[in-house]
Amino acid sequence: MRSIRARLVMALIVVFALVSALAAITTYRRVLDETSTLFDYQLRQMALSLRNQISLAPRIEVPPDQGDTDFVIQIWDLFGSRMYLSRPGLPMINQTVLGYANLTLQGQPWRAYGLQTAAGVIQIAQPVSVRQRLASAAALRIVVPLILLLPVLIVFVAWIVGHGLLPLRRLTAEVQRRDALSLAPLVSDGLPGEIEPLVAELNRLLDRLREAFAAQRHFIADAAHELRSPLTALRLQMQLLDRAPDAVAQREARERLGLAVERSIHLVEQLLALARSEPQGAPTNAEPVDLSAIAAQAITDTHALALSRRIELGLDSPGSGSPGALLRGDPEALRALVRNLVDNAVRYTLPGGSVQVTCRSAADGVWLEVCDTGPGLDAADRERVFDRFYRRPAAQEPGTGLGLAIVKAVAERHGANITLGDAPGGGLRVTVQFPVAP
Amino acid sequence: MRVLLVEDDAMIATGLTTALRQAGFAVDWLNDGHGAHAALQTTEFDLVLLDLGLPQRDGIAVLREFRQRGAVTPVIILTARDEIQSRITGLDAGADDYIVKPFDLDEVLARMRSVLRRAAGRGDSHIVHGDLRLDPVTRTVERGGVPVAVSAHEYSVLEALLQRPGAVLSRTQLEDRLYGWNESIASNAVEVYIHGLRRKLGPDCIRTLRGVGYFVPKT
Asked: H/E element holding A329?
């Protein structure tokens, strides 16, 4: 992991180097161009100024050049013999080119100008290196201050970045202080625009966490609260058993104690079923299951209760020959769903009524329908029956208030839709539509 | 002693009713707030045991209205809500005591006696009148230090009359103290108990105000 500061400093150095190089090259080339024009002009002027002197004194002995100029002057007469060479040591070129020319001498490039006069030919030559030296010097004058400026810039950038990252450090410290209990939103005031989206996302995550934790706490509080009632009944019946005055009272107390124990067990089982089906997301034990088989099993489970209440309980399913109502899901959870629906229907239907379960597979999914001839549900109850521990005010039947909450949780986990409607017989019709298996 | 039990959990209510009847109380059970409200308006109870999480109308609302009408009948809240705030709300709404589920039966009975004692303006749990001494815990009667054997119903009649010596209680009022709504009463039951008490404690212990009712003279 590399820090933003190091990255920025590195980038700055690279960019600075490139800019410096570019500036140096440009300067060098431009200065070279300018000096070339200037020196070319000078070469020509020198040649022109020498023109008259040749004609005046064609063979004067000019003292050789002492070497403080770069120019080399050669003069030839009309017959091609050199009349003058300003720097005798140099093995100068023998051929003359009229006008400007680039020559190579001893491996070095020269620039020359030849002029034809009435008395002969004058050639002025100069090493190109002179021009290059001038251009280099100019380029250097541009680059050196830039290079000297670099450390100052680096320090400045490092400081700016450090300063700019202060809010991030503050944020880190704030996040470090957080735990499961302190999930309040992070303060986004005064944060740079680049970090604000991150903080906004973090806050949304904290929000979801807080909700999830609150739901969990709520559930535990509810569960603990709901456990009190069966435990109260249990303790009460136990104490009544202790103080039963006669055998009849004793038997009665023992029976009721048994019922209270059954009730506690039922509540704990329902709580467990709900806890297992609560977690969000796809079912963990998804496997291909036949909903009609599960419905048949659930009906078998509830058969005894229906019989004792003289309720006609029936299943209408595709039958044994057909492939059934296939879907992908958690068989244990689906069994709890069907069982709770059928159980509810049987409990709230008056003796002599009927409960009809239908299971079918269609193009738009797998349908489960439970119709009863009970009293049905009014609109206010329809909104609340799926709440945990909600029991209808008029409910006389013993129950935990968890059955439909389990149904809802299982349905949600399977992506199924639940609809409450009116059954043909005047009772409640619960429809669960499962999406088609992929 | 007639007790109204308001409790929506049938299992708890059945158990409590049995226990309270065994302890000599006449018990009426209701399972919702509306019914409780109506019953408190029409019937005289000695004590109310009130659950808070009731269908249709919350126990606290029932209690507030009851107290606003100026009723002083002792009320004990029996609830699963154990938060401090809930206790404070309950007591401030007019409850005389607050018991959290799961409760102990003996504790409930002791608290009921304690609340009844305070309602009758007595510090001692015994009811003393002249040389008579009643023990509400054991439901026994002593006269001049000698135990007198009385039946449970006889005790209830005597206790009712001794709550406010000098006050006249009609036969119907006494029947109300003895029986809940669903209990069948023999038409002359109260006369039988009064007769029994007079036989055991002396003919002058309970006087008759002809056409009105019975009373125990002040000492």
From this structure: strand A326-329
In chain A the first and final C-alpha atoms are separated, in Å, by 43
CA distance A418 to A434: 9
Cα angle B105, B108, B109 (rounded to 5 degrees) comes to 90
- What does pTM read for this prediction? 0.60
Q: Which residues of B touch A233 (CB under 8 A)?
A: 9, 11-12, 15
Question: pLDDT for B99-139, tens place per residue?
Answer: 998 899 999 999 999 999 888 877 777 888 888 899 888 88
Are B52 and B90 in contact by the 8 Å Cβ rule? The answer is yes
Task: Choose the closest CB to A232 out of B18, B56, B102.
Answer: B102
Preceding peptide of B102 cis, ω within 30°: yes
Q: Residue A310 carries which DSSP code?
A: T
What dihedral do alpha carbons A409, A273, B56, A258 form, nearest 10°?
Answer: 170
Q: Is the ipTM of this complex over 0.90?
A: no
Task: Find the distance separating the first CA and the last CA of chain B, reported in whole Å.
Answer: 23
Which residues in chain B are contacts of A253 at CB distance < 8 A?
A: 18
Residue among B8, B9, B11, B107 with most chain A CBs within 10 A, to mutate: B11
Beta-carbon contacts of residue B37 (< 8 Å; ≥ 6 apart): B57, B62, B65, B66
The verdict on B215 touching A (C-beta cutoff 8 Å) is no
Residue with tokens 């992070």: A186
